[in-house]
Amino acid sequence: MMSIDTATPATILIVDDTPENITVLGELLKPLYVVRVATNGPRALASANSLPRPDLILLDVMMPEMDGYAVMTKLRENPVTAEIPVIFVTALDATDDETHGLELGAADYITKPLRAPIVLARVRGQLELKHARDRLRDQNSWLEAEVSRRMKQNQMIQDASMRALASLAETRDNETGNHILRTQGYVEVLCRELSRHGHPELRDEHNIELITKAAPLHDIGKVGIPDNILLKPGKLTDEEWTVMRTHSTLGAEAIQRAIQDEADQSVFDFLLVAMKIAHHHHEKWDGSGYPKGLKGEAIPLPARLMALADVFDALINRRCYKEAMTMEVATAIIQEGKGKHFDPTVVDAFLDRQTDFIAIAHKYADTDLDETE
């Protein structure tokens, strides 16, 4: 953590057009502080902007051309000098004058004739306040950096945990880890394309990030499917298919159990999105999907995105029960499912970004994809 070195003498800028006043203040302050002098407003502003910047400014009010009030206004308008404390030094003794100076942002007001004990006490008091503010600002900066570091660390832990869970599911499935990477990539592309067209749920970058990061957990429920069904090389029987379809509910229930005892569910926004995807990515736009038979926009958007991504990837890649299809055939099937299996707007986004889908498929290919060209 940064700290203020109180052993280093503070720098004080004296601004006065009268040499006698500068001499008096200089002789009083030089034994204790580093003293700089400016004899008019423009020079005072230039000196305040130069390094090292003054820790405190003693500013005369009555000066020709640019008086102390004008100098004070300029100091406060400049972000570089706005925080430098200013003590007005003046022969004026009217309450209105003092009030005006304080309203402009002056830290204190000293009237002439100057009395050494008063000047030294006011200067010391303002420097101590400045040092305290600087320490507090440095502490706040350190705390903000530490919070940011911890949040980044927590995000890394969350991402690692997500990958571990997704990997657990894939080790029990015929699909590969590249399926997870591909479908995650497809989902992000769809999110950004819909966002570009102003989709109300995807205007926030945070929502796009949540959906993208949650996508790999879509098949987490497969860990609950028996091996003789999950790893069966051929076509499933009706009874086996009924069991296989329970993976969506199993995945959602597993995530729900992990968070159900927490009062503030909002802190689990990532897992809530993952639960929606796991539970509903096999629903169909026309209501013929499972497990709930949801229809249209009743299906959560993250699940509608995953539905297309998951089917597309299954079509273009080899499975133990089928060969890979070409991109053209897969695209035709997706188009045929528009308004039936898939959300029409999601299909349109897919068609607009086909080049990106193909690039992702090749980048994370299980094979050379030569047969899918």
Outline the structure in words:
- The chain is an alpha/beta fold and 373 residues long.
- It folds into 2 domains: 11-143, Response regulator (Rossmann fold), CATH 3.40.50.2300; 171-372, Orthogonal Bundle (Hypothetical protein af1432).
- The protein is 55% helix and 6% strand.
- The chain contains 15 helices and 5 strands.
- The chain has helices at 19-29, 41-49, 68-77, 95-103, 116-170, 177-196, 205-214, 227-230, 238-244, 247-259, 269-280, 301-316, 327-336, 344-352, 354-363; strands spanning 11-15, 34-38, 56-60, 86-90, 108-111.
- A 5-stranded parallel beta sheet has the order 2-1-3-4-5, sandwiched between helices.
- Helix 4 links the parallel strand 4 and strand 5.
Mean pLDDT: 87
Largest sheet: 5 strands, parallel
Q: Return the CATH architecture of the largest domain.
A: Orthogonal Bundle
What's the CATH first level of the largest domain? Mainly Alpha
Please state roughly what percent of the residues sit in beta strands, choosing from under 5%, 5-15%, 15-25%, 25-35%, 35-45% or over 45%.
Answer: 5-15%
Approximate shape: elongated
Indicate how many domains the architecture comprises: 2
Give helix and strand order, one letter per element, not per position: EHEHEHEHEHHHHHHHHHHH
**Total number of β-strand segments?**
5
List unreliable stretches of 5+ residues.
1-6, 368-373
